[in-house]
Specification:
six-stranded parallel beta sheet, seven-stranded parallel beta sheet, 2 domains, alpha/beta, Rossmann fold, 379 residues
Length: 379
């Protein structure tokens, strides 16, 4: 099978989607047992990127062919989303059997089966939480593009049900490919965390303002409460939150450390007493999986896909309830036995998520996309 994957989300400052495409590509070309489904003989994976300034870093991508084009990404997105031109075969010499877009809008192709990934549908419910380009294109075009796709990949059962309900996609046209846990050994010994950690893009749906409310209340009750550390790429909407961190009562109790690259994340979890994810909506929640891998207890929102990811291995709270969020954090601080139990259960739960399984799911989706393409009369 000749597979082309849109690698652009991983081109710079990899966040959730960028990490997903990077690790999925690596898993697709990873050698497997002779009878295993990880990589079939004759498969070829090409990673496509376009940017005027940024280039693909080939590190860790051995086995993948790279098609790195010097085309401004905004210009290409406008042409692809609005004009459905040029076909990918004009930019990358093919032919390809399958082309895979890592967002809900199709990558134009002449003959290849087209697969899209839907990570979440928050852009439909709350477009005001999204970036300008997503706000312009996704709500208007996603339904049509997803319906035309030969197959849809989702990152959780929750997102799959949303796609089925919202766009009317039959369940047989949807495949769940959940992310895998990172290959990190868990930290040794007792939990020695020094801070409560938030990790994620500082955007409205992450609910950082309510987290700051909860932590301020906790710190007022517990002067011994560990520091709050906020890690992630800031957006324009984060200005008020960052100002709050630098002013009383949070000054000296909370700090912002900016974007954390992949090679520094394990060390950051190593020092965390707990991870807190108070998001209004998550299609999966990669930081929860990373934290559980390290044995870091998780306090998460009870919305979106987070209950599916965390299960009983964390504390789930209403993201709109600052008092409840503060109480959950205080429970972890005050109850070492609870923290140890969640740490142990989190490690067990995280071990169920593997990139090999994600690659097997993707390969199944590609095969089904080819079948659908043929049924639709495209050769």
């Amino acid at each position: 099978m000749r597979i082309l994957i849109d690698y652009r989300p991983a081109l710079r400052a990899r966040t959730g989607v960028g990490e997903y495409v990077h690790e999925l590509a690596r898993a697709l070309v990873a050698p497997g047992p002779p009878a295993g489904p990880a990589r079939q003989a004759g498969d070829a994976v090409t990673l496509f990127s376009s940017s005027w300034t940024d280039r693909i870093d080939p590190g860790g991508l051995a086995g993948c062919a790279l098609a790195d084009r010097r085309v401004p990404v905004r210009l290409l997105n406008l042409a692809w989303h609005r004009l459905e031109w040029p076909p990918i075969e004009r930019l990358v010499r093919g032919p390809f059997d399958v082309v895979h877009s890592l967002h809900p809008l199709l990558m134009p192709a002449r003959r290849a089966a087209q697969v899209v990934t839907v990570h979440d549908l928050d852009f439909l419910v709350h477009p005001e939480r999204t970036r300008a380009e997503i706000r312009r294109d996704y709500p208007a075009l996603a339904a049509r593009h997803v319906a035309r796709a030969d197959h849809v990949i989702v990152n959780s059962r929750f997102t799959g049900k949303e796609v089925e309900r919202t766009f009317g996609v039959p369940p047989g046209q949807i495949t769940v490919c959940a992310p895998g846990a990172p290959p990190w050994p868990p930290r040794d010994g007792a939990i020695r965390g020094r801070y409560v950690l938030f990790l994620g893009t500082l955007e409205p749906r992450k609910n950082v303002g309510r987290l700051l409310d909860a932590y301020a209340a906790l710190a007022a009750r517990r002067p011994d409460a560990p520091q709050l550390v906020l890690g992630g790429r800031p957006t324009a909407e984060a200005a008020d939150w960052l100002a709050r961190v630098q002013a009383p009562p949070l000054a000296g109790r909370a700090r912002f450390i900016g974007y954390v690259p992949p090679d520094r994340r394990r060390a950051l979890y190593e020092g965390a007493l707990a991870l807190v994810i108070p998001s209004h909506h998550e299609g999966f929640g990669m930081p929860a999986l990373e934290a559980m891998t390290m044995g870091v207890p998780v306090v998460a929102s009870n919305r979106g896909a987070l209950p599916e990811v965390v299960g009983d291995a964390g504390l789930l709270v209403d993201p709109d309830d600052a008092v409840g969020l503060a109480a959950a954090l205080e429970r972890l601080i005050s109850d070492p036995a609870l923290a140890r139990r969640l740490s142990d259960e989190g490690r067990v739960r995280a071990s169920r998520f593997t990139w090999r399984a994600a690659a097997e799911g993707a390969r199944t989706a590609y095969t089904r996309a080819l079948d659908t393409r043929r049924l639709r009369g495209h050769g």
